[in-house]
Amino acid sequence: MKIVVLGGGISTERHVAQVTATSVCQALRRRGHQAIYVDLFLGMENYHRPLEEAFLEPDGLCGNVAIEVQEPDLKAVWESRAYQSPGHLGKNVAEICALADCVFVGLHGKDGEDGKIQALLELIGVPYTGSGPLASAIAMNKAMAKRVLANSTICTPAWRELDYTEADIPRLTEELPVPCAVKVIDGGSSIGVELPDTREELAAALKRILRYGNHVIVENKIFGRELTVPVLDGHALNPIEVIPPEGTEFDYVAKYQSGALGAREICPANLTPEEDRRLREAAETVQKELDLRVYSRSDFILDREGQPWFLEVNTLPGMTPNSLIPRSARVDGISYDELCEKIVMLSLRESRR
């Protein structure tokens, strides 16, 4: 099949989306598909041959990319684009997608997980991987997702949604609970997340988080083990425990860097049968209640009583070979290349429905 793998983009998760998309592209090519990598934001501005010939490129238009220690410099990315447009869609992105049999959405964050690219692909009639526009938009908005799940069996920490300015910080510092978690409403990759334990830390956190936006949710902090549970085709895979480096929080560096800087990821997690069952059922319920398709990954805190507390769901979780879903799938005997192709095939099945 001719497959466009969309990555990059212009969100704070750009680096992650580059590595996900190029990794998936290479895997699909190893499975015999004519897959090519296309950056959502830069598009085909550096490709000067007829677009239909791009699928024959021997390297799939994949370059060498890596997840950096620092989050991307989006101003520099904007300035690097030759295609003069105020929009986030690069040159000939819609046109190259229209030539494909399927688009693998390897994006993360804004424009990828918020339903926008899914809506575009539906308008031009091209099948794509993952969830639809509405489900994607609801799941990415942390407050909306919690409202939908409020009538389900899912437990979530007490939370509050708010918009604020720097002038509001003194008042909020006195009003909000501590310890707590403060999260940008539509953030990802642990960017725009703060976990203050004191009122002094809360004031500093609220100020820092304005860099990413002023629309946030504030949750009561739940103490316990951090676990994440992938779901594939409606069935939960092996839960994974995430252990940040000692004395640190699970931030962007801990999530994506190896060695002393990175988090430990234990798969399968060391759980009792009852804890395992509860986590799997909760992740499957999130997938069903939010009407997500094909695959997702839900994050939980497992408290001392063995109760899973839902934090958020990722509709387009990382898909590098070392990402959490591929690691979990490997325990069940599904290789990385097989997983990438399976996501395509399941998505085509959903599209035909």
Task: Tell me what you see in this structure.
- Helices cover 34% and strands 19% of the residues.
- By secondary structure, it is of the alpha+beta class.
- It folds into 3 domains: 2-130, 3-Layer(aba) Sandwich (Rossmann fold), CATH 3.40.50; 140-155 and 223-315, D-amino Acid Aminotransferase, Chain A, domain 1; 159-220, Dna Ligase, domain 1 (2-Layer Sandwich).
- The strands form 3 sheets. Strands 8, 9, 10, 11, 12 and 13 form a 6-stranded antiparallel beta sheet that branches. A 4-stranded antiparallel beta sheet has the order 4-7-5-6, covered by helices on one side.
- A hairpin with an 8-residue loop joins strand 5 (180-184) and strand 6 (193-194).
- The longest helix has 17 residues, at 14-30.
- The chain is globular.
- The two termini are 19 Å apart.
At a glance:
The protein is an alpha+beta fold and 353 residues long. Helices cover 34% and strands 19% of the residues.
CATH topology of the largest domain: Rossmann fold
Low-confidence stretches: 250-261
- The percent range for strand residues is 15-25%
Secondary-structure element series: EHEHHEHHHEHEEHEEEEHEHEEHH
Distance between the termini: 19 Å
Largest sheet data: 6 strands, antiparallel
Count the strands? 13
What would the principal axes of the Cα set say about the shape? globular
> CATH class of the largest domain, anyone?
Alpha Beta
What is the architecture of the largest domain at the second tier of CATH? 3-Layer(aba) Sandwich
Number of helices: 12
Could you tell me the radius of gyration in angstroms?
20 Å
Mean pLDDT: 91
Q: In which range does the helix fraction lie?
A: 25-40%
